[in-house]
Amino acid sequence: MSLPKQVTKAHGTGNDFVVYLDRSGQYEPTADEVRFLCDRHFGIGADGLIRLTRPDFVSDLSDDQIAQMLAGGARWFMDYRNADGSLAEMCGNGTRAITLFAQREGVADSTEPFRLGTRAGVKILTPRGNMKPYGADVFQVEMGAWKIGELDAYEVTIPGTAGSARGTFIDMGNPHVVAVIEDAFASLPVVEDLDLVTKPVVSPEIESDQNVEFVRVDDIDEAAGTGEATMRVNERGCGETLSCGTGLCATGIVLRAKTGISHWDITVRGGTLRVDVTDEDVKLTGAATLVADITLL
């Protein structure tokens, strides 16, 4: 087995992970090991696995990528795997969970910003402590640049569910299609009634598999420049999750494009998070939790 004996269960607003520290680079997991640990019946159960290690211990990174990590001040790397064993470019909730874990393990300062390497570049996480209404051990993540496609260019359906919605492509370092389902041309059920165990279908087909978000606008305060929304998500590689950090950011970007409002409190099944969008970047604010330390047999 290429796993350490000790791992930790963590989550960010219900988006849960098996995490561990690999100081020496000897514990790079296989896809089978990831699938086993993330299995909710035969393993520990998680949406993904995160190995915290040095950038030069990650076998799929090129020399140029490693150099970029180090130039960006990232001495530690979030080696994230989806529950099906596939590599993932980025996970916004995972960055918060692994940073809280890094603080406990003494490789991140509990009061200073932490520069974390990911396959989507270096992310900066700033501790915010306890912060209403987001919870305890809150971090603000600088998620970086984003790209948006043509608004409503895709039809989104769910096999077995009547109706459809229009979706917009967002590149957050990983691919998303965001559908605001109360738009005039949407005919899917309300957000709470969607069947997201079934993988949504996006047409025309996007070359890479993508996460799909379904969103409802709940309130807009134009004077304050803020809004509230509700979101559910089907993530590639693991199905519906209680929260998705990059999906929340993608949602905030689409809502900004449709309404002109840049600051959103978005509620997912795992809690409420803040998304702040500018032309240059997007910031995600939310809580992280360490649940248990586990010894593998």
TrEMBL record:
Pfam families: DAP_epimerase (PF01678). Its main location: cytoplasm. GO terms for molecular function: diaminopimelate epimerase activity. Substrate binds at residues 15, 82, 92-93, 174, 211, 235-236, 245-246. InterPro entries: DAP_epimerase_AS, DAP_epimerase_DapF. It is found in: Cytoplasm. One of its GO terms (cellular component) is cytosol. Pathway: Amino-acid biosynthesis; L-lysine biosynthesis via DAP pathway; DL-2,6-diaminopimelate from LL-2,6-diaminopimelate: step 1/1. PROSITE patterns: DAP_EPIMERASE (PS01326). The active site is at 91, 91 (proton donor), 244 (proton acceptor). The keyword 4Fe-4S does not apply. Its EC number is 5.1.1.7. It comes from the Bacteria. The record marks 176, 235 as: Could be important to modulate the pK values of the two catalytic cysteine residues. It is an enzyme of class 5 (isomerase). It catalyses: (2S,6S)-2,6-diaminopimelate = meso-2,6-diaminopimelate. SUPFAM superfamilies: Diaminopimelate epimerase-like (SSF54506). One of its GO terms (biological process) is lysine biosynthetic process via diaminopimelate. Belongs to the diaminopimelate epimerase family. Homodimer. Catalyzes the stereoinversion of LL-2,6-diaminopimelate (L,L-DAP) to meso-diaminopimelate (meso-DAP), a precursor of L-lysine and an essential component of the bacterial peptidoglycan. This is Diaminopimelate epimerase. It comes from Bifidobacterium felsineum.
